[in-house]
């Protein structure tokens, strides 16, 4: 699939090795003679190009980080800056602060000039040195600002909504006759972006979640009929829950959005939990935040004092239902609830995520300097790719229930309760 | 202060060095010519005694762990067993399970025979290998059971309520003519036991809380006007909150039971928080669970669906009050609440707590073998002592507001808001 | 590529989903129109098969771990046992101890019966619960023993030499008319096995090496002209060195086997180090143990008191050459040498390696139960495969100098010194 | 014991609470009726004084860190700066770099102006933000420089040699008529400073050493007759070795300077090691660097190529002797040697050391502002004190072999071999 380019690349690259625009990577590397013909989408391979669209000496780049915290944001910022500065010789780099708000001069603070000195140690801490926020920006106002500040390249670090916002900026800039390269680095701690085999931050989240599950297991194991419910990130996909379950081997029930489960009845989750408690005397339950949403619909909606919808919190919902059910069943128990999300997403990137961030960032710079726009960096079969932003929205990435990831969950937990077809 | 002994010690100790019963340690090592005469309480020094009351070959010991989890419980169990077995040659050791419930044969499971093999690796995990529970036991039933099982020595690991329960067991056994040595090891993660300069688990809790405060700081620092409230253990004393504040240097407001603070008005906490947010753009608030109880009394009591009193949770209370106040003040903010208690108390002991547990346990065995009873092991000026259980209840241990601990908090936070005299 | 099978699979699998023998995975997922036709090797996809060769109720399996320590060995053992026991219902599993020595009844200790209870917590520690050793076993004696003990399946966890030994066992057993499934799980902390995109233990080693590099950076940075040389594993390939360099961003020179570098002269490493020291005042050097072997050949060989060849230790060699060179150049410096290998390889597996071990082990059981033999489990493009053992020896896996891994090293270090063509 | 003061304190303190100069702390809090009359040394209690000698607005302070790295150096620097700046209002603070070299304008770099911004995050990393070096400075040149730069207060962070150097500076300044307050913060990772119950960095070192011992245990335990020798800091005292032994419970032999042991013969260490290997199949040996020096004296001295005395390295010596001995005894074994010192001393301070550093630093500022000089901050019975530098040199601090520390080592290891009277 071809990537939009701003124009002809005319400046020689300062690098000594190149990747041709003609190289493609197969989306599907499996050959199954009994299966219908597979998807033949071919993605462009990322990497340095022989000719650049932008003259490094005259180029001005911007960086913005959006959405929730995710381990590795600072690594991405740092590698973008170092790659621009040291490898390509780009000297003017602005960091827009507080997410997309920072593109709007009426709402945000002044952007920060980014230098190798500024980013030197930022990767040693979690969070984002540019801050972050949720929500969109007025496209027209933002493009006015980008043009006024003479920004040629904008690196957008964020989820799919953020990336679509980035595409809108490019299109608006084009209408104004301003050649703006918008290159995205996909960010989702949930690992649910299509065309990216692993998003940065995901593995670090699994590592932290595993630590927390060890605590949960200790809590459950140290009292009679101890039950601990741990809620973890995963709005649309259960990758963190599945990974942490297989890594820790301490979870007895893993609930994910991909498997809408039955709560009540002999086949349901509550009865299965009761059987385990009676037999083994403790249980650890790991629930992704997007699991079991079907259970909380209908007339059950409740609002807290501030008017926020409460009933959609599956962790609290499950805790309360378990409590009520086991009381009814006259089983003594100790029930604890842990919601560690802020402690998982705010840590520095682990080594593997640090490496991944570096690769994503350096490839994003290669793409932008070559004048490519409206894309995000993807990864397929250990190869980094260029993915048109439009393509991102065309698919969803969820747990494949026949994959080792989910089969590993079933083996680790031994869980058995009814679920509806996904 | 003398310690009750079961009778004359007649068996020679297998150890090669001894501590005399006559050695005492001063409670107060400070001489202030301008102060009133100080407390002249003298505590017996712990350690091996030359003669034993119990014949190791015929002695049967029991161990029980009570109350909430605390890092180091398994280290204490392990060192008790190894000291009894290897150093004194005691071969029969029973672990009563599920706390004091385990002393009641009608409620508890069978006790576990404890051997060096059983305890070999238990200190590498958190929790208690003997499980734990809250609540008392029927003294008469328990003593029946202890006599029937021919228990000579009972090691009680728990808080002051647990220790008073242990004293009751000794008195009841004495009435029955059974010589029972009850030796306590004080357990409180809050570090609020008098006559013990530092309880085991406390330092590990501070270390974990410090890790969590780093996350809180990252969360607060990565958004505009980010506020994070962290609730930490500390029902009657703010030692963990103070220690974690000084260790992390990332906290801006530390609230403890010893300092009843004013919430409203220009001098109050909320106005101070607002001033900081306006000036610095973020804030981390660390609140001990026992802080601010005065704020939640009176007509404000609320109950949740299960009938539990809700309003006493200072963390949730503060979060809600901050939310309301800043909304009223029309200040934009992002507010997060973290309650990490289960993640703090369930980890294995750090190195220093592991050492402390070993010393407490080995001294407890020395005391018991010498026939001492109705005491807990204390620590004063780096010296381990024998503290009569009755003495424990006579004092409280709280933060001294002139101590380096609290002065360090004031310096680290720079906090300024009104408080009532403690 | 087809895999040898012991015979017709006749027993229905207890699992509910299957993978067909006909599915293949492409070795090369990249399409380059300008490149010569690529390798068209197709590997069999791993996973559960519909029919089994072995009747689980009558099957006896053995496990052996060989070679040096590697994070994850216990995870592999544990998942093999749990998969055999819980998923397939195999009840007789023997753990041969001390590596291949344990297959020889004249040299080794009795094998250990492996149960879910035995393996329950082994993954929480490093090392191997079955111990390990280097060196081969007398094939004839080992097969005698395996036949006598009625072993149907042998799982071999080890490097390529170990796996070739496993193939020899299968061939010898076949000659004796004993149907022995030998299924290997490739083990190399160096990550240098072909057909396996990442071996278990590698990521954990990178994480630990990164921690150590932080210490090295601190040491170098805290004195004037501080130089720290860190030697890390990597006999034939520099994957750990490259990964740790990119993850830590604290290394200034990374030396790997794939890049034979020049030591002396203006273009050489020593002069480049001198320039850095003069300019920046500190340097961290990370050297893979297999780097620079060409520098130590010839007349320089030296032996220690015990008769061991000393000069091949590139870490010590470099340290001494740096010392001599900078003395000659009259540059003051402080030089430290760190060899942390034992501290890197003995830790428990991190979360991602724990997951990988689980997948490798469960797929190995699937293959063995289906009667496949003479293979190892591989991984290509995130898909687990069956790789004939013979194929393993046909290729080598080393750093591709155009890959993001090595380009990331060059960017992170900025290193510039002459090297010979690889 | 009285502390030298520069003159009458005439400026009111900005603090609201004070400690009187008349308060003293007992060195010995133990009363033993059978012991000879104890030491009656009384130390001045540290803390804020009501009147200051220096006018904060006109005061200029300097800080220097000397000797080897130690966890917590940056915490000390940071708290000194924050206390001077925020609490006392001192605005001019210079950081002299590279240890005492930095006091000599002919040798060192320019000092760094220290501000709250500069020190904001330095405590999150190990090492010293001011660098460090070993060796003295020309006192006359240094005092010239201090006078020229109008330094009123010099904070000296270092060991006893460094502190004696600090006293020399004070005396020389006095001769020149310059009122220089020199206040020391004792720094020794070995914890062997008298009048200081625990030096900063020591507990962090024990924690790291314990981690390393877990690795050593895994290495020893995973092969047949595995032996691991770990060398750890402790030139004159075995506190780190003892602490790590008790904390880890994984060491089988602990060798410290205080216990000169016998190597050969049936009673010796080597025979005891052999017995353990034969009986248990593995051993972990922890040796403090200052242990066994008596074994390496006499004709055995050897020099390396650079002319350094080699034979004094007890770790290498032991490793080689064990190797030779077990070969002679015809016992198969695998022997590993680990020297992790650089990995132990370069990490950031743990929570407890972070707290300790803060207290030491803030008390040092109190003392200096009051015009006290020629002292170091000490700690006795959890109370911070003023210790005249001369007093430091008058005693040594070593392990008391009857203390819980050493008795805990004996219990943890069960070690039995001959040693000479200490």
Automatic annotation (TrEMBL), chains A, B, C, D:
* Keyword Metal-binding among UniProt keywords: yes
The Swiss-Prot or TrEMBL record annotates one GO molecular function as: diphosphate-fructose-6-phosphate 1-phosphotransferase activity
Give the matching Pfam families: PFK
Keyword line = ATP-binding, Glycolysis, Kinase, Magnesium, Metal-binding, Nucleotide-binding, Transferase
Record has Methyltransferase as a keyword: no
SUPFAM superfamilies named among the record's database cross-references: Phosphofructokinase
Q: Which NCBIfam families match?
A: PRK06830.1 (NF005301)
Q: What does this protein do?
A: Catalyzes the phosphorylation of D-fructose 6-phosphate, the first committing step of glycolysis. Uses inorganic phosphate (PPi) as phosphoryl donor instead of ATP like common ATP-dependent phosphofructokinases (ATP-PFKs), which renders the reaction reversible, and can thus function both in glycolysis and gluconeogenesis. Consistently, PPi-PFK can replace the enzymes of both the forward (ATP-PFK) and reverse (fructose-bisphosphatase (FBPase)) reactions.
What is the recorded name of this protein?
Answer: 6-phosphofructokinase 1
């Amino acid at each position: 699939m071809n990537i939009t380019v701003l124009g002809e690349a005319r400046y020689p690259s300062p690098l000594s090795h190149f990747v041709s625009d003609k190289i493609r990577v197969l989306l599907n590397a499996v050959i199954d003679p009994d299966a219908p013909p597979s998807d033949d989408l071919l993605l462009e391979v990322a990497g340095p190009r022989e000719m650049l669209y932008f003259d490094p000496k005259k180029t001005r780049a911007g960086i913005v980080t959006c959405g929730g915290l995710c381990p590795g944001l600072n690594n991405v910022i740092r590698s973008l800056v170092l790659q621009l500065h040291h490898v390509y010789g780009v000297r003017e780099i602005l960091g827009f602060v507080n997410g997309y708000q920072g593109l709007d001069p009426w709402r945000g603070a002044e952007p920060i000039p980014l230098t190798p000195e500024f980013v030197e140690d930022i990767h040693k801490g979690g969070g984002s040195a540019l801050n972050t926020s949720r929500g969109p920006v007025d496209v027209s106002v933002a493009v006015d600002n980008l043009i006024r500040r003479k920004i040629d390249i904008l690196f957008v670090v964020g989820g799919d909504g953020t990336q679509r916002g980035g595409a809108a900026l490019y299109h608006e800039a084009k209408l104004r006759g301003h050649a703006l390269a918008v290159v995205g680095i996909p960010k989702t701690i949930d690992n649910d972006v299509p065309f990216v085999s692993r998003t940065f931050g995901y593995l670090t989240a699994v590592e932290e979640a595993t630590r927390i599950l060890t605590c949960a297991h200790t809590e459950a194991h140290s009292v009679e009929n101890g039950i601990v419910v741990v809620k973890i990130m995963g709005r649309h996909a259960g990758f963190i829950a599945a990974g942490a379950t297989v890594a820790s081997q301490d979870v007895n029930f893993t609930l994910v959005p991909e498997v809408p489960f039955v709560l009540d009845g002999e086949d349901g989750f509550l009865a299965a939990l009761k059987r385990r408690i009676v037999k083994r005397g403790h249980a650890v339950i790991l629930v992704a935040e997007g699991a079991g949403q079907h259970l909380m619909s209908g007339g059950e909606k409740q609002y807290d004092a501030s008017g926020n919808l409460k009933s959609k919190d599956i962790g609290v919902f499950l805790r309360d239902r378990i409590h009520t059910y086991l009381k009814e069943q006259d089983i003594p128990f100790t029930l604890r609830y842990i919601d560690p999300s802020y402690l998982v997403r705010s840590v520095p990137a682990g080594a593997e995520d640090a490496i991944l961030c570096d690769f994503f960032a350096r490839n994003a710079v290669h793409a932008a300097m070559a004048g490519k726009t409206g894309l995000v960096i993807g990864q397929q079969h250990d190869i980094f790719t260029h993915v048109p932003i439009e393509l991102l929205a065309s698919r969803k990435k969820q747990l494949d229930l026949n994959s080792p990831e989910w089969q590993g969950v079933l083996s680790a937990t031994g869980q058995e309760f009814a679920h509806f077809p996904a």
